[in-house]
């Protein structure tokens, strides 16, 4: 069986498949459950300074297994309440990565300090939620914003900081470079693509918030392109996110340059058993292709000589 | 994807409880729920109180603002429906005891109907605050179930909680399964009464719910999600869940004690 352990952002992972932020992750028991089901690590729901109920329903629009549209609105119990949930996950032995969102660099830094104090192994900064006023893309959507926020956080905490960047840009590599300049240990790409659904009978948007974010297999080629474009522009590792449903999807991301991966929407389609399946299948696929270690495959697609420069 | 359909009937079941019927052809099983969207307002989970045929139904008790707005819907009003979601009652036991508190009968009545339709013996312990609030008492009788009533004020049946009736029935007669829905403290008492007799109990659970897809974690109940692992849980699972009867979570995911 091929070796799936990876070292990413200074963290040793038993396998590359992380539970993506926003899926489960509001309760400690759920994080623990994802860890027990075989996730290589679990990323919390994005946590803010205060409790936030999120948007009213409808917050999701469902499609066949190609995608999922959501605008949850960053619901979370707030940083005062949340440490007790992390404690439950840590008690189960999980490698927990704490995701935070904030309205400006100073708030990010304050939150990051408190999140780091809970015992998480790394932080992920949500610079990319596409549908929350005053947060996400609105505060972290340009290279200057990304650099300023990441620098403010890395100045204050000693654990690795991962910047999760948006695909709703024409310059993903520019955002990643900015994160690197700010001191990020890794960059994760991508968050959801800004999207909307309209009910034709009611002549109105389906989601209460109107705009939302699209995830699932439909966005895999987009995420892959971002990882592809980022990989040789930065020295820090890239975490691939977006539409990973099979081991083959995972390997595409790794060959495009991802050192670790996040899985979210597929948990919705397959249940938490998806982690066990992906790990098993990826190991088998690597064996079949003659690779003994996943780390040897990172970015290999860039070595193909016949491609034009991008 | 949702289907937008028009409400066909609005039935006042008790002074505080209303049934809405609507065309929705998806196959559904007793115990399952649908997400009901009032356009421009909210979308929430509701157990199906009518699961058979193309005309489905939900039954809701007036509690807070949302349930009142659902009750204010009239025939012809549009609602968005998606689902059905979740698991179902296992209809195989021969002698079934149903314990219903408050509007719990909404999900238990279609299960009882299906069981009676395949010749099972069904006994219903039906509780309410007062006689006019006994939900579906006639429906249970018409399907051929034996019905034992309890009211808090003694205006009909045994005076006191329905758990007292359930304890008496469990002590005096053999049952193969108990199905229950109501306040969690009530369901906990039912479990305690059935346990020493070895009768398995199945509880229909409720938590704040948003996506209904097993994604958002809003309806987390210990290691489970009510939307995909429930709503029907065997008691032996619930007994290992520290949340059960102790706390639920609000829309921000904060723990709220019962």
Folded structure, characterized:
The complex is a heterodimer of chains A (310) and B (258). Chain A has 310 residues and is an alpha/beta fold. Chain A has a single domain, classed as Aldolase class I (TIM Barrel). Chain A has helices at residues 28-36, 83-91, 105-116, 137-140, 143-156, 172-182, 220-231, 247-256, 265-270, 274-289, and strands at 6-8, 11-13, 17-19, 41-43, 60-62, 68-70, 96-100, 122-126, 161-164, 186-189, 193-195, 198-199, 204-205, 212-215, 238-241, 258-263. In chain A, the strands form four sheets. Chain A has an eight-stranded parallel beta barrel with strand order 3-4-7-8-9-10-15-16, surrounded by eight helices. Chain A has a four-stranded antiparallel beta sheet with strand order 5-6-14-11, with no helix packed on it. In chain A, strands 1-2 form a two-stranded antiparallel sheet. In chain A, helix 5 runs parallel beside helix 6. The mean pLDDT of chain A is 96. Chain B is of the alpha/beta class. The two termini of chain B are 34 Å apart. Chain B folds into two domains: 3-85, Translation factors (Elongation Factor Tu (Ef-tu), domain 3, Beta Barrel); 95-257, Rossmann fold (3-Layer(aba) Sandwich). Chain B is built from seven helices and 18 strands. Helix content of chain B is 22%, strand content 36%. The chains are: A alpha/beta (310), B alpha/beta (258). The interface between A and B is large, with 42 and 35 residues.
Task: Provide keyphrases for this structure.
heterodimer; A: TIM Barrel; 8-stranded parallel beta barrel; 4-stranded antiparallel beta sheet; 10 helices; B: alpha/beta; Elongation Factor Tu (Ef-tu), domain 3; Rossmann fold; 2 domains; 7-stranded antiparallel beta sheet; 7-stranded mixed beta sheet; 22% helix
């Amino acid at each position: 069986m091929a070796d799936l352990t990876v070292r990413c952002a200074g963290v040793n992972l038993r396998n590359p498949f992380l539970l993506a932020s926003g899926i489960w992750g509001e309760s400690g028991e759920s994080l623990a459950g994802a860890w027990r089901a075989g996730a290589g690590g679990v990323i919390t729901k994005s946590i803010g300074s205060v409790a936030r109920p999120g948007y009213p329903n409808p917050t999701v629009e469902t499609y066949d297994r190609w995608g999922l549209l959501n605008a949850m609105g960053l619901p979370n119990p707030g940083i005062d309440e949340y440490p007790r949930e992390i404690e439950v996950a840590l008690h189960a032995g999980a490698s927990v990565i704490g995701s935070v969102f904030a309205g400006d660099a100073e708030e990010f830094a304050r939150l990051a300090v408190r999140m780091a104090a809970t015992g998480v192994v790394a932080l992920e900064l949500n610079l990319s939620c596409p549908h929350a006023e005053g947060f996400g893309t609105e505060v972290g959507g340009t290279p200057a914003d990304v650099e300023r926020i990441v620098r403010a956080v890395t100045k204050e905490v000693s654990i690795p900081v991962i910047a999760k960047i948006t695909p709703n840009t024409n310059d993903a590599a520019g955002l990643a470079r900015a994160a690197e300049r700010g001191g990020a240990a890794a960059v994760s790409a991508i968050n959801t693509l800004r999207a909307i659904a309209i009910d034709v009978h009611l002549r109105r948007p389906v989601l209460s918030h109107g705009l939302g974010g699209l995830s699932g297999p439909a966005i895999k080629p987009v995420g892959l392109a971002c990882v592809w474009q980022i990989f040789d522009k930065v020295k820090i590792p890239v975490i691939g996110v977006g539409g990973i449903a099979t081991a083959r999807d995972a390997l595409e991301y790794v060959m495009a340059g991802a050192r670790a991966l996040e899985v979210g929407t597929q948990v919705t389609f397959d249940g938490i058993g998806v982690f066990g399946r992906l790990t098993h299948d990826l190991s088998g696929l690597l064996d079949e292709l003659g690779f003994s270690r996943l780390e040897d495959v990172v970015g290999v697609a860039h070595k193909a000589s016949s491609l034009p420069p991008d | 994807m949702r289907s937008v359909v028009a409400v066909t009937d609005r039935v006042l079941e008790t002074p505080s409880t209303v049934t809405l019927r609507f065309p929705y052809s998806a196959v559904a099983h007793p115990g399952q729920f649908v997400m009901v969207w009032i356009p421009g307002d909210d979308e929430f989970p509701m157990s199906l109180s009518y699961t058979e045929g193309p005309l489905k139904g939900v039954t809701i008790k007036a509690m807070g603002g949302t349930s009142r707005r659902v009750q204010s819907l009239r025939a012809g009003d549009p609602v968005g429906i998606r689902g059905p979601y979740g698991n179902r009652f296992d209809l195989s036991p021969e002698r079934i005891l149903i314990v219903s508190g408050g509007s719990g009968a909404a999900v238990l009545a279609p299960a009882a109907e299906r069981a009676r339709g395949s010749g099972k013996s069904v006994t219903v312990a039906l509780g309410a605050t007062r006689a006019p609030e006994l939900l579906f008492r006639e429906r249970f009788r018409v399907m051929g179930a034996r019905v034992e009533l309890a009211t808090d004020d003694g205006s009909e049946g045994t005076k006191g909680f329905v758990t007292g009736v359930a304890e008496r029935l469990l002590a005096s007669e053999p049952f193969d399964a108990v199905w229950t829905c109501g306040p969690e403290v009530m369901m906990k008492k039912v479990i305690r009464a059935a346990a020493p007799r070895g009768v398995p109990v199945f509880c229909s659970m409720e938590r704040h719910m948003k996506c209904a897809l097993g994604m958002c974690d809003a309806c987390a109940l210990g290691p489970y999600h009510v939307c995909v692992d429930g709503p029907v849980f065997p008691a032996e699972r619930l007994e290992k869940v520290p949340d059960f009867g102790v706390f639920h979570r609000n829309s921000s995911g904060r723990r709220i004690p019962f």
